[in-house]
Design the sequence.
């Protein structure tokens, strides 16, 4: 992507195993002079580099070597981070919609949303916004046709088979089912975000 | 040191950006026109990464509370010190009490005002840049207001630098009206040869909704092949094609990831002149090879190295 970024694509479908390889590759890249940072996507890693310090060709061969040595290695030390969440009511104005859309009860939506940990596939959209999945089909829901102008900080949303958390008040089109008080982004903290790609997140109903 | 009397439309503290946090969703940001920022810093004897003011579209008025050395580069404004016209692209010595004014704008979108010693705002996540949308960095995470006082990190007013100016090659860079140079890809599978052909043969107009995040173009509708791209990291200068077929060029404050296919990416050396485009301006794109992109980068470094 331009002369200062290399996109490594490992596949084309949302899959936890494939995504684990993305994070493993990010971790396996040797600290090369000229490599600035790398950004995981669902199935890809974008490596930003300084072409005055390392050539695209040299970087490509380093990446290919790292990929070969990756083997079937998976990320073993995923952290599990708990997110206490208030579901429904004023905190989750779309909980009813998600329930009706899937012809289950709101309690069943909450049960399924808290039943298993979800993987942080990537972080994007805004500082600290995690793209979590894979959501069970039974509680998936389409985005809003018209995004809301204001979604409160801490809102927990659903879009397709993804779920996520809005770190700050912002516009947004995901169906909001609950809210957490956990702070996901603080620029004065190190690291500045609570979650990192590859983490596991478990929602707890409170 | 510098007291803002009138900040104009949008004036923010910016440096070369915030590197290393994109995996957390925190964008690079920094000066839209890093070439002009570096030139301004070089004129007043600063290291390239010092923070300066990015002044957008409209003018600005400030008063120097103490003697200092400043330089204004980038977009061309009528520049006055105590109501006397003074040159842009030149190191200016300001006495205590001097009134500096950026008046009428004659070219470009963004000017950079560097202060010798560098603007002193807290370093946050390795940068002094303001992220206005995220409300952090720079001056309390916001644009400047009347009454704000900016001090230098190092109190200095190297009067011997006063009068130093930029090489002619600097101004010539911005006079270049050639198509913006891009490197094609990476999402080639989303574009037919016909769509790509149309992209490279069309003229686009920069739309009104363009800002520090992205420039929104209007023109021929660029068709994309069906299929959903999974979100991936995106780079500065990447040209996304959304479903309406109207290209979006990602600029300094772009999100770290995106879900629209990227047809091409503007080369680093042409970002600065792109950052000076105004809504309503027309431009087109030309594909180049990696070698030309690297050569153009090196040429900009040579120009900057001439400023001593």
Sequence:
């Amino acid at each position: 992507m331009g002369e200062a970024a290399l996109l490594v694509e490992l596949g084309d479908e949302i899959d936890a195993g494939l995504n684990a390889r993305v994070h493993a590759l990010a971790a396996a890249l040797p600290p090369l002079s000229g490599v600035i940072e790398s950004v995981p996507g669902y199935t890809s890693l974008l490596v930003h580099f300084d072409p005055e310090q390392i050539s695209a060709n040299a970087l490509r061969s380093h990446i290919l070597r790292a990929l070969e040595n990756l083997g079937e290695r998976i990320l073993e030390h995923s952290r599990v981070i708990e997110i206490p969440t208030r579901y429904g009511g004023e905190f989750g104005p779309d909980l009813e919609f998600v329930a009706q859309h899937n012809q289950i009860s709101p309690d069943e939506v909450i049960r399924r949303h808290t039943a298993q940990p979800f993987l942080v596939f990537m972080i994007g959209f805004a500082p600290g916004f995690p793209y979590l999945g894979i959501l069970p089909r039974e509680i998936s829901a389409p985005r809003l046709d018209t995004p809301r102008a204001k979604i409160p900080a801490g809102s927990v949303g659903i879009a397709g088979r993804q779920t996520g958390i809005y770190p700050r008040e912002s516009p947004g089109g995901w169906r909001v089912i609950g809210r957490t008080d956990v702070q996901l982004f603080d620029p004065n903290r190190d690291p500045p975000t609570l979650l990192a790609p590859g983490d596991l997140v478990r929602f707890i109903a409170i | 040191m510098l007291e803002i009397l009138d900040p104009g439309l949008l004036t923010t503290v910016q440096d070369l950006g915030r590197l290393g946090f994109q995996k957390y969703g925190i964008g690079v940001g920094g000066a839209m026109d890093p070439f002009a920022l570096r030139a301004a810093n070089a004129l007043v004897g600063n290291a390239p990464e010092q923070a300066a003011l990015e002044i957008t579209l409209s003018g600005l008025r400030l008063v120097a509370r103490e003697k200092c050395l400043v330089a204004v580069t980038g977009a061309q404004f009528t520049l006055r010190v105590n109501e006397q016209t003074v040159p842009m692209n030149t190191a200016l010595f300001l006495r205590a009490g001097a009134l500096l004014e950026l008046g009428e704008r004659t070219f470009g979108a963004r000017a950079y005002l560097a202060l010798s010693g560098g603007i002193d705002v807290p370093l946050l996540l390795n940068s002094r840049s303001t992220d206005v949308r995220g409300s952090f960095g720079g001056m309390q995470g916001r644009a400047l207001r009347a009454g704000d006082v900016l001090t230098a990190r190092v109190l200095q007013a190297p009067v011997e630098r006063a009068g130093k100016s930029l090489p002619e090659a600097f101004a010539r860079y911005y006079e270049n009206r050639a198509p913006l140079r891009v490197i094609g890809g990476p999402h080639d599978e989303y574009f037919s040869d016909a769509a790509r052909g149309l992209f490279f043969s069309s003229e686009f107009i920069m739309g009104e909704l363009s800002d520090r995040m992205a420039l929104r173009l209007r023109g021929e509708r660029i068709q994309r092949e069906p299929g959903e791209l999974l979100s991936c990291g995106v780079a500065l200068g990447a040209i996304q094609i959304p479903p309406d077929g109207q290209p979006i060029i990602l600029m300094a404050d772009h999100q770290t990831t995106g879900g629209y296919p990227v047809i091409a990416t503007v080369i680093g050396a042409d970002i600065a002149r792109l950052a000076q485009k105004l809504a309503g301006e027309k431009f087109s794109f030309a594909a180049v090879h990696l070698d030309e992109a690297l050569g153009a980068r090196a040429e900009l470094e040579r120009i900057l190295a001439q400023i001593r």
